[in-house]
Amino acid sequence: MAAIAAVLAVIDQITKNWAVANLEELVPQPFLGEFLQLTLLYNTGAAWGLGSEITPVVTGLQIAIVIGVIVFALKAVRSPGYTLALGLILGGALGNIHDRLLRDPAPFHGAVVDFLELPHWPVFNIADMAVVGGAILIIALGLFGVAADPAADAPAPESQESRDTTPEEPR
Q1: Is-catalytic flag, 149?
Q2: Is residue 87 part of a domain?
Q3: N or C: at which end does the chain have fewer Cβ atoms within 10 angstroms?
Q4: What confidence category does residue 167 fall into, taking pLDDT thresholds of 50, 70 and 90?
């Protein structure tokens, strides 16, 4: 999970730094025709710009969620699917938290760099894709009955004590 998160956070930051260096703010550049455009946008809020007036609160909530994901993963996750999903969510969250903590205008008030734009959809970034992809994977795993810890759902082996206390059948 940590490796997945680290790779995603690095890719996210590389692409954001490229966007800041090469794109003009709010000027769409066709990438795949009109289907995908590159449009630099600085988002001080959460998803779709919500909460832009309370960036430090949004940052604090994101940090708390990251801590919760890590604790849950360390205690309860043994499934490769859930490990991948939580790695995606963690990597995406860390990429966006990095922006909030270290980008302008000030620490804890930073704006997340968004630059990918689809028709009729808010501008987003690689980190956002990872978070959404991880969430979709968790939903799919749940719908297909995949447990976060398959060993926890397995029947417990019969202990020696339970065999010793089982009454004998009459003869």
Answers
A1: no
A2: yes
A3: C
A4: low
